[in-house]
Amino acid sequence: MKVSTLGPKGTFSHETSLLLGADEILFKRSIWEVFNAVEKSECEGGVVPVENSLVGGVSQTLDSLIEFNLKINKEYLLPIHHNLACWGELEDIEVLYSHNLTLSQCEKFVRNYLPKVEIHETSSNAISAIELSNRKDKRYAALVSEFAAEIYKLKILKKDVQDEKLNFTRFFVIGNQSTLPTGKDRTSIVVSPSVNRPGVLYSVIKPFYDAGIDLTKIESRPSKKKMGEYIFFIDFKGHAKDKKISLTLKELSSIFSVKILGSYPRAY
Amino acid sequence: MKVSTLGPKGTFSHETSLLLGADEILFKRSIWEVFNAVEKSECEGGVVPVENSLVGGVSQTLDSLIEFNLKINKEYLLPIHHNLACWGELEDIEVLYSHNLTLSQCEKFVRNYLPKVEIHETSSNAISAIELSNRKDKRYAALVSEFAAEIYKLKILKKDVQDEKLNFTRFFVIGNQSTLPTGKDRTSIVVSPSVNRPGVLYSVIKPFYDAGIDLTKIESRPSKKKMGEYIFFIDFKGHAKDKKISLTLKELSSIFSVKILGSYPRAY
């Protein structure tokens, strides 16, 4: 399968694309460009991160799910491990390259082991690896994945340096087509209440509760229209074609603006 | 008032601290260090960003609100404007310094006006300004606030380049003491359900609905324990000492783990 994903080589998105069996990969500069490539049929699918178990939702992906008319076809959970790569020992390190989300996931490690280090934030873990591979000097270090360390031939000094050992990133594969029910599916929708009265969230989730539909996630995001106004990304078990679910979505759509982002096989 | 906030000079946090009347400022490297300075009484208060109207919650602040036993004393809405600073014209620009959240707020502008530019992500808008001030060369540009441009003597070529004109960041002032009711307050709590059964969010918000309490925000965050398990940051109108609210919080606490993060005068 030919997919587009976030580049450069060595990102978690690249690793996930390979694990999902991609045999040709278009590397893009932003998540918006990944969606755009799928919409323009430059590739069959796009692989994008949607949330991390420590940090929460990836806002560019959530925004693009609203902007584009594509469907989620698959979800995948990638276990995340960060590692300290450098050319010397801990006490030699003066500069640390890290993506800012990676840094926040390794904050205690950096505070305890590298309190005086100068931090250079990068735009991705792969870029951190590239920066270090360009500076073969023991004063430099980077927080990288094993996958990136392998690609850029880096030396890992300390493995698994993130503060919480349980760390996953959930990825979506997006495409132009809907997927059929498998019997063990999940559906993602976004609900835009367009009113900001008290109790709106209650009215959004009550129909699911009444129908006995198992909500697996609800994430509120700013509506971008007014401070204190939110839209809701909701995941639940089942396929949009299941009778109970299609009735509930119909009921919800009569009150609120509802967009179905896709039904796809559950990974957890 | 002596406060700690996110440095270096020129951050939105710095600007907010001055607008709130701070006359002495301790600049810290991370939000965790701002909380720590307040807890250790190095200063009277800490000024931290909590959410942006376009991007959503600031995870380091939400994490620190859980970790530390401090109280929210005040909220403040700072209007956010991003500007393109450079030494020459648009067509001269080859490298753009930007914080990654700023970049995502100016994505359409950059896509349309600077499609081929090389992006160097920085750890803050103030650092973007410092990087540009260190390179007085028309090939370089940065996305910065007017405040940072003034401090670092930069030239603004294009004002207000963010994609959505309505853009606010909400800040909290945190301290060691609780604040008294003013009659126009808001309260923030975090609820950790510790069970992951269907309908848990429904049970969390139903008591508020039943008591007629006006929820102004609900934000789900990963519990960090298990994929698909969430905790909820909830804001509502009123003070924790109000009778209706104290009864509702008591009811909620009998079912879930609830932490009151503070009651404080409403800014909107």
UniProtKB/TrEMBL annotation, chains A, B:
Top enzyme class, one word, equals lyase
GO cellular component annotations, sorted alphabetically? cytoplasm
Which EC number(s) does UniProt give?
4.2.1.51
Positions of the Prephenate dehydratase domain: 2-176
Q: What reaction does this enzyme carry out catalytically?
A: prephenate + H(+) = 3-phenylpyruvate + CO2 + H2O
Read off the PROSITE patterns from this record. Answer: ACT, PREPHENATE_DEHYDR_2, PREPHENATE_DEHYDR_3
Molecular functions (GO terms)? prephenate dehydratase activity
- Pathway(s) per entry: Amino-acid biosynthesis; L-phenylalanine biosynthesis; phenylpyruvate from prephenate: step 1/1
Q: Which UniProt keywords apply?
A: Amino-acid biosynthesis, Aromatic amino acid biosynthesis, Lyase, Phenylalanine biosynthesis
Question: What residue stretches are annotated with the ACT domain?
Answer: 189-265
| Pfam families linked | ACT (PF01842), PDT (PF00800)
Question: Which one GO biological process term can you cite for this protein?
Answer: L-phenylalanine biosynthetic process
Annotated PANTHER family: PREPHENATE DEHYDRATASE P PROTEIN, PREPHENATE DEHYDRATASE-RELATED
UniProt name for this protein: prephenate dehydratase
Q: Which organism is it from?
A: Candidatus Methanofastidiosum methylothiophilum
